[in-house]
């Protein structure tokens, strides 16, 4: 009887170890905006690439887990984390996102936010004199659906939303709006990719230097390892390894 009980206990342990929940703990499933190069984008072969992907692969080595990378339209990616169908993403931890994730407080990267407008915009002199976001109330700002920073900070502004970052640049180049607010690293990469270099000008006003954080779904098994993730990212930042990764995209 004792032997039968022992055998059953061992069998049950093996079944638990083979369950989807146990397997999920050995892999970190990350989702990204698939059109936010050079931070995250889908290449010609359908593989996710970018600074965020590189950093998370390095974090996975420290954790001893495999990292899976999937890209989606940004709003859909966020919904997957909210629904517990992915472990996390790297982004600006807005109030809304903090409600369904645990934030790893050591940043993955820092994203400066500056202004871009059409080259030769009739109000360029006025834009160059802007000193704060509040100085832009008279202008139409182009933005993409799912941008949490814009949703949180552009309340009361004239905002025209479009489906993706490419469309924002194309509309701006065509004079269909006055401004966009984005990271210069993203702008340089996208303008070259779209063949729009020279049609869009950067306005020398840095609105913010925004930290991008790893956010883990409250329902993820990795939510219990947020402190460990914080230590890993802080150590990678202090050692200069994150800076070396960033330099490859500048």
UniProtKB/TrEMBL annotation:
The family this protein is said to belong to: Belongs to the bacterial solute-binding protein 3 family.
Name listed for the protein in its UniProt record: Solute-binding protein family 3/N-terminal domain-containing protein
Keywords linked to the UniProt accession: Signal
Signal peptide: 1-24
All residue ranges annotated as the Solute-binding protein family 3/N-terminal domain in the record: 27-250
SUPFAM superfamilies linked: Periplasmic binding protein-like II
InterPro entries for the chain: Solute-binding_3/MltF_N (IPR001638)
């Amino acid at each position: 009887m004792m032997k039968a009980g022992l055998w059953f206990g061992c069998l049950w342990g093996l079944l638990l170890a083979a369950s989807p929940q146990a397997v999920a703990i050995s892999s970190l499933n990350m989702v990204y905006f698939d059109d936010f190069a050079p931070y995250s984008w889908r290449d010609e072969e359908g593989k996710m690439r970018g600074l965020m992907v590189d950093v998370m692969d390095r974090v996975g080595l420290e954790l001893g887990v495999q990292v899976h990378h999937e890209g989606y339209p940004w709003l859909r990616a966020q919904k997957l984390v909210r629904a517990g169908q992915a472990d996390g993403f790297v982004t600006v931890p807005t109030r809304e996102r903090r409600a369904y994730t645990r934030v790893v407080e050591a940043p993955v990267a820092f994203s400066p936010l500056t202004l871009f407008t059409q080259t030769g915009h009739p109000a360029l002199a006025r834009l160059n004199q802007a000193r704060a976001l509040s100085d832009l109330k008279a202008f139409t700002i182009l933005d993409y659906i799912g941008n949490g920073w814009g949703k949180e900070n552009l309340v009361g502004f004239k905002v025209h939303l479009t489906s993706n970052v490419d469309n924002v640049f194309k509309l701006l180049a065509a004079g269909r709006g006055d401004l966009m607010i984005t990271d210069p690293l993203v702008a340089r990469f996208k303008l070259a990719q779209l063949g729009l270099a020279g049609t869009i000008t950067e306005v020398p006003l840095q609105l913010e230097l925004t930290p991008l954080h790893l956010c883990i779904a409250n329902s993820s098994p990795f939510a219990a390892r947020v402190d460990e993730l914080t230590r890993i990212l802080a150590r990678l930042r202090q050692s200069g390894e994150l800076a070396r990764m960033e330099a490859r995209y500048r």
